[in-house]
Amino acid sequence: MARRTSLAGKVVLITGAARGIGAQTARVAAARGARVALVGLEPERLEALAAELGPGHAWSVCDVTDQASVQAAVDATVDRLGGIDVVHANAGIGAAGTVAIAPVDVLLRVLDVNLTGVVRTVSAALPHVTARRGYVTITASSAAYGAFPGLTTYCASKAGVEHFANALRLEVAHKGVAVGTIHPAWIDTDLVRDQQAASPLFDENVDKLPGPAGARVSVEACAEAIVDGMERRRRKVNVPRGVAAMSALKPLLHSAAVDWVVRRRARTMVPQLEAEILARGTWFGATSMGMGEQD
């Protein structure tokens, strides 16, 4: 088991910190003594969370799709808190819709936030993390291990950040920097609840996923696992731990045999999903910082 290192006095920068996994991770990290830089798009929520955490923390409004905005948030963190020991590139969105029906701008928005936004965040923070021989952690997903119809660019973005982290790990190891990825299943966040509220098919299809692929976990349990991963500088954090089986079985999950099984269900599920999305008229959930109403 990896040795635990205290977060006391360490500076942890978290993107997507206004709600969900990011906000709860900030609470747990602060409770363990970290000084947290909250970064996101909702100033009222960020300010309220910083006040909840107490003195010694900071917050910045930041759009991870804009490099100047990301750099400004990193610079503000260093200015106010003195450096960065851990960067948690967590900001992410999901969009409903298949490639056949979703506008290309919607599909690309998911990649811009979930993949390119991670690259922007890590690139800006890395010199400061390197100076402290720190830790980079990125929120991927169990979707990095398997493919799910209706989540095409979400799956692509999460597989992309996992492999980005895999290569980055090799680039920075000799500098004393560790790199990890987080692979949650279905966490009780606003993003997931939005999907549940909008889609009668959601719960039905999640319940049919086998084993850890369909696991539902509280945001509190997820945040505890993430902060434990920060303290142990873990290579992978799977939430729940059983999701690790999906990683081990990745060749099988992408095999022709599994494709055949999924395609049988997709014949009826995909047309139902497309009809449902077109009927409700939105691509993003109410709490996603996405692109609003569909055209």
Question: What is the topology?
Answer:
Elements: E1 11-15, H1 20-31, E2 35-40, H2 43-53, E3 58-61, H3 67-81, E4 86-89, H4 104-131, E5 135-139, H5 152-172, E6 178-184, E7 186-187, H6 190-198, H7 200-207, E8 216-217, H8 219-232, E9 236-239, H9 244-248, H10 250-253, H11 256-280
Parallel strand pairs: 1-2, 1-4, 2-3, 4-5, 5-6, 6-9, 7-8
Helix pairs in contact: 1-8, 3-4, 4-5, 6-7
Order of helices and strands: EHEHEHEHEHEEHHEHEHHH
Largest sheet: 7 strands, parallel
- In total, the number of strands is 9
Q: Can you identify the CATH superfamily?
A: NAD(P)-binding Rossmann-like Domain
CATH class descriptor: Alpha Beta
Low-pLDDT residue intervals, each spanning 5 or more residues: 290-295
Oligomer: single chain
- What is the average per-residue confidence, as pLDDT, rounded to a whole number? 90
